[in-house]
Amino acid sequence: MDHFIYRDGILHAEGVALPDIAATVGTPFYCYSAATLRRHYQLFTDALSPLPHLVCFAVKSCSNLAILRLLGDLGAGMDVVSGGEYLRARAAGVAGEKIVFSGVGKTRAEMRLALTDGVRQFNVESEPELRALSEVATAMGTTAPITLRVNPDVDAGTHDKIATGRKEDKFGIPIARAPGIYAEAARLPGLSVVGIDVHIGSQLTDLAPFEAAYRKVADLTRQLRADGHTISRLDLGGGLGIPYTRSNEVPPLPSDYGALIKRTVGDLGCEIEIEPGRLISGNAGILVSSVIWVKEGEGRKFLILDSAMNDLIRPAMYGAWHDIVPVGEPAPEAIPDVFDVVGPVCESGDTFARGRPLPPLAEGDLVAFRSAGAYGAVMASEYNSRPLVPEVLVHGDHFAVIRARPTFDEMLARDTIPEWL
Ligand code: LLP
After folding, report:
1. What's the pLDDT tens digit per position in 364-413?
2. Can you spell out the DSSP letters for 47-77?
C-alpha cells in the first residue's frame, strides 16, 4: 500500500497534487511519501517483535539525508556499504552504534572512519579484509565488532545481476570455510566476534531461498557456539521484493517474512538485524516526468519524456518493469494507445517500456513511474549532461524539496580546464 492516489481526477502524493509540485520544481522530479516510508518501516519492526531486533535501512536504496533522518527518528539503524553512506547516516543523526558496515571492498580509510566515529559492526566479507581490519583497529588501540558474511550457496531466484548468495557470486565467505575463518578472527587482535551475517540477493518474491539460507545460518550458529564463539547477533540481510505491477504475483509480506525468521532462527536467543531497502523505499517513491513529444514512428508511437535512463536506470539495466501512470486520471471510457516510452538520451537503450498500453497522452502531460523510490535517484547520473533529478518529500498536505536540481553553472563549475590548455 502506498499514498499515491487519484483525488478529483489528479494523482496526489498524500495530500499534495503532483502538478503543484511540478509547477514549483519543474520536471522530472522524484517524489517520496513520508507516510509510506513510516508505514513500511513499521511493518518490519512489527513483524520481528517481540524478538530483540534492529531494522537497518539499506542506505544504498535511497540515501537522501531527509529520508535517513525520517527513518532514523523512528528508531531505524542503517546498513551502509561505503564511507559516503556512513557519513550520510551520521549526518542524518543516526548514532554509529546503529550503523552496520557491509560491503565486499571496504578500504582501510573506510574502516578508520567508522572506528573513529562509532559503528555497530563490520560485516566482513573476506580473509584479507579481516586481517586488515585487525591491523587498523589494533593500530588505533580499539576493537572492531565483527560478523562474517557467509555465502550459503543459495540461489535467490532473482535477476542474475542482483543475486548475491551463490558460490559464483563475489559476496561473503563460503559457508563451509566459515568455522576456520571464525577461529582466525578469534585469534586476531583488535576484533570482537559478535555474530553472523548473510544476504542472498534483492527483489526476492519467494520465501524459500530465505528459509534455506537462514536454516544454514542457524546450523552454523550452533556449530560456532560449540567452538566457543559468542554469536549474539544475526544479520539476515535485506532482499524482500515488492510488487512492481498490480498484475504481478504478490510477493510475501513482511509479516510472512517475520514469521519465517522466528521459525528458522527465533529460538537461538540472538538479536536479529535485517537490512531492507527496497521494501521500505521502493513503493514510497515515484518519478514524475513530462511528455516532450509524441512521435509517430514506423508502425509505432514513441512517447518521448523529459526523464531518461540517466534518471531511472532500472529498465535499461535490468529490463525492469515500472508501472507508468498519467497524473491526470484517464476517463473510464478512454481508449488506450500503445507507446514505446523513451527518454531523450542518445542511445536506443534509453527505453523505459516497449508496446506499453497507456491512456491517450499529449505534449506537456505529466506521467509518473511508480515504485521508483528504491534504486532510482541513487543510481542517477548526469549522462548527456542532464542535471540530477531533484527530490521532494511529501508529508500530509505539504512538501519540501530535499535535493534541489543543480543549475548548469554548478555542473560546469565542477570541471577545471588546466591552465596549459
Ligand atoms: N544488504 C546488502 C548487503 C545488500 O547488498 C543489499 C542490496 C541490501 C541489504 C538491500 O536489499 P533490498 O532490501 O533493497 O533488496 N540496483 C538493484 C538492486 C541492488 C541491490 C544491492 N544490494 C535494483 O535496482 O534492483
Report:
1. 999 999 999 999 999 999 999 999 999 999 999 999 999 999 999 999 99
2. HHTTS-EEEEEEGGG---HHHHHHHHHHT-E
What is residue 158's predicted lDDT score, i.e. its pLDDT?
Answer: 84
> Which has the closest alpha carbon to 153: 203, 103, 209?
209
Q: Residue 275 above 90 pLDDT?
A: yes
Concerning whether 346 is annotated as a catalytic residue, the answer is yes
CATH number of the domain that 216 lies in?
A: 3.20.20.10
Query: What is the CATH number for 338?
Result: 2.40.37.10
For residue 197, pLDDT beyond 70: yes
Do residues 217 and 242 share a domain?
Answer: yes
Q: How many helices (H) and strands (E) does the chain have?
A: 12, 21
Range(s) of the domain holding residue 333: 4-31+282-413
Quote the ligand 1 centre to 20 CA distance (angstroms). 32
Ligand 1 centroid to residue 375 C-alpha, Å: 8
Per-residue pLDDT tens digits for 85-127:
999 999 999 999 999 999 999 999 999 999 999 999 999 999 9
Catalytic residue among 31, 62, 270, 346: 346
Give, as one character, the DSSP assignment of residue 227: T
